[in-house]
Amino acid sequence: MDREMIFNINGREYRAELDPSMRFIDVLRDCFHLTGTKEGCSEGECGACSILMNGDVVASCLLLAGQAEGAEIVTIEGIVEQGEYDHLLRAFMEVGAVQCGFCTPGIIVALKALLDRNPNPSDEEIRIAISGNLCRCTGYQKIIEAVHLSKGKNC
Amino acid sequence: MQRIDVYLKPRCVEEAVHMMAMNEGAKLLSGGTDLIIQIHDWSVSPPCLVDIGGIPEISRVHEEHDEIVIGSTVTFAQLEKNDLILKYCLALAEAASQVAAPQIRNRATIGGNVGNAAVAADSIPPLMVFDAVVELASIRGIRRVPISELIIDMNKTCIQHDELITCIRIPKVQVKSAFEKIGRRKAQAISRICLAVAVTSSNNVIDNSKIAVGAAGRKAYLCPNVSDVLHGKELTGDSIRDACAVLDETVAEVLGNRPTAPYKRAIASASLERALGRLLEE
User: Fold this and answer.
1) Partner of B66 at 20 to 30 A CA spacing, among A137, B116, B170, B190?
2) Which residues of B fall within a CB distance of 8 Å from A70?
3) CA–CA separation, B70 and B195 (whole Å)
4) How many other C-beta atoms lie within 10 A of the C-beta of residue B192?
5) What is the pTM of this model?
6) Which residues of B touch A44 (CB under 8 A)?
7) In chain A, what is the straight-line distance between the N-terminal and C-terminal CA atoms, in Å?
8) Closest residue by Cα to residue A127 from A101, A100, A99, A147
9) How far is CA B249 from CA B43, B120, B265, B274, B276, in A?
């Protein structure tokens, strides 16, 4: 049943009349037009729909609106807007870690969850951090290179 | 996705059990990593969801007298780095760290893993070797069921429709333990086999050991005949080989003429060899 719901997304308040049992990815994309978050597999396997919930990376296709309410949500739009990881985005382009780009928002979100806690990760730590994100273009090596390239660089 | 009529968010266990009793057909929602997929693909359509994700009393790990108490909504991400779990239930921490991927580990809960009772549920063999007891609450009160009795069959437990798992209790005993899993790849893999061992020894002689295996039959099970082989022995290459041979036979017996039997018995004994081998090196 619809009711008024309030979300904290990218530091802003979003309000809508909606059903708390809606999937949060549908809330983001259809209600609030935050379409940077992609839907791939719809079952938590591909990571394209990754967002941050209270700082942790989660799959927004496996999250209901009622669960996201009250949490601090960050999407790819918030990361780009804030500019804190511009050096990582540039490194992605520099080394060719983006090809079709569909997985890229989810991977950047997963990497933010890692780098916020551990600014100097090892290869293994990067691999674990993006182990829930499928990329069918790059083979991951360039993504890992991009993280190393961005280390210690400021915007 | 179809609309669910009622979405409830209890603040405590007492409120939750009342909601479960009052709403027939209600489903408990916690991490939702299984349930939300089922709702989305229409394989489940509950009239009511009771979201227990926001109940503080069941979302932490703590000590109570001589037990470790794991709240049912504790996530795998919490388990894999919790100090008490790392100290007393290492095999469970190892299992938690190998479930799916970060996105899932940050949401999926131990209560959900136990309650769904999937054949390949990674937390169940570790809970079996640690003699875990599952605490269930309903308006009728609280009851405690050992994990081995709770799971009746594939995806089937003795949990009543209005009961909720509040916590899992593990005796606080210092044991050496290890977990091994074989999947088709490292991340996001459904276990082809998952196995846990827990061993206590005095003067290097094993006086108690437990071995549990999952994904090798309709439900996970303890292997007392493997424990018998190890009893009174030192952990050596020879005793490990003997234990693996018995596990191989046990798994073969459980699986009978199922087509996966030759593969499963081989990877089960290989996993046991790895797990005991790691304990030997410690």
Assistant:
1) B116
2) 54
3) 20
4) 18
5) 0.96
6) 33, 37, 100, 103-104
7) 45
8) A147
9) 38, 20, 7, 18, 18
